[in-house]
Design brief:
single chain; Rossmann fold; two-stranded antiparallel ribbon; 12 helices; globular; SGNH domain-containing protein; SGNH_hydro_sf
Length: 325
């Protein structure tokens, strides 16, 4: 009488080519369903994935949902800008807003500068700044404009009539309107009106291939706030973000959700409760570079904002054979 097979022997008996095919089929279907859900939620534009959502990994690196982020070194960045310059295009970035936008500008410029040029650290917060690299045909401006006012609208309208407006505009505001008005409802309503006046120049700039990123504000850490900043609350920030979302969703501006999420994830490390820690600013710089450079550089690990390559004849034949098999 033969002894009953052990559990391990039964499992081994199940390992065969037919079952392997079934497992492979279920895995392919699973991956297809996962990507279908991502496409249904975020669309097929991987730039929207990059700017919309993501999470922190265990090593505090940022991971967008649905695509891969390439970590740009200074050499990678300069190579990208040289490539763009070689084909006759200038790279012109404009940052406009308050001190939160200014620190994004500073982190971006610091990444662009070579190590032997690292003498730059502006002291005055309330001034315009410019960084130019003629070799790379690169210009980066910071415009101090902490309120969504007639002045900012005028700046956008000036850009609108330029033959070569900025390639990318990074803009955001909420802290100063809240602080200067002691969180009054009237100022919020004025903010909404002026946002509406920005829609037309933003749409016009989009037609000239300018990308406008509206930075949704990250929350604050009230435990670290100085007394003079106490009128700023996360509830007020949410109201201003909501106003921007409702109005600019109907424009050509990109709502930069992931900038808020990156800041929110490390707000406990904020130096003063309002401004972002250096690690967060590094992630924001990397998101900008992936958005701007990936389609030119074609890094294997930089799939966000990278156009899908055309299928080759060999790939089509291979997939056809696999489908028949």
């Amino acid at each position: 009488m033969t002894a009953e097979k052990s559990r391990i022997e039964i499992i081994i008996d199940q390992i065969n080519s037919n079952n392997a095919k079934k497992v492979a089929l279920f895995m392919v279907i699973g991956f297809a369903c996962y990507h279908a859900i991502l496409h249904a939620r975020y669309g097929t534009n991987s730039c929207k994935w990059l700017l919309s959502d993501g999470r922190y990994k265990a090593d505090q690196e940022w991971q967008p949902y649905g695509c891969m982020l390439h970590l740009y070194s200074k050499i990678d960045t300069r190579r990208c800008l040289r490539y763009i310059a070689y084909y006759g295009s200038d790279s012109n970035f404009a940052f406009i807003g308050d001190s939160r936008i200014k620190e994004m500008y500073e982190a971006f410029v610091e990444h662009l500068m070579q190590d032997d040029d690292m003498t730059y650290r502006p002291e005055n917060s309330y001034t315009n700044l410019t960084h130019i690299d003629n070799k790379l045909k690169m210009k980066v401006d910071f415009i101090w404009d902490p309120l969504i006012s007639g002045k900012m609208i005028h700046t956008f309208r000036n850009w609108q009539v330029l033959t070569s407006p900025p390639s990318v505009i990074i803009v955001g505001s909420a802290m100063w309107p809240i602080l200067s008005s002691n969180a009054s409802l009237y100022t919020l309503q004025e903010y909404q009106v002026n946002l509406t006046r920005l829609v037309q120049p933003i749409d016009s700039l989009h037609e000239k291939k300018t990308r406008v990123l509206w930075v949704l504000q990250a929350p604050i850490n009230r435990d670290k706030l100085k007394p003079e900043y106490q009128p700023i609350t996360n509830e007020q920030i949410d109201l201003y973000n909501k106003a921007a979302i409702e109005i600019l969703s109907h424009s050509a501006a990109d709502l930069w959700w992931s900038a808020r999420l990156v800041g929110q994830g490390m707000i406990s490390e904020s130096p003063d409760g309002i401004h972002l820690p250096k690690k967060t600013l590094t992630h924001i710089t990397q998101i900008l570079l992936n958005m701007y450079c990936n389609d030119y550089m074609n890094f294997n690990d930089g799939t966000c904002c990278s156009s899908v390559e055309q299928r080759t004849t060999l790939q089509i034949v291979t997939f056809s054979i696999l489908g028949l098999w």
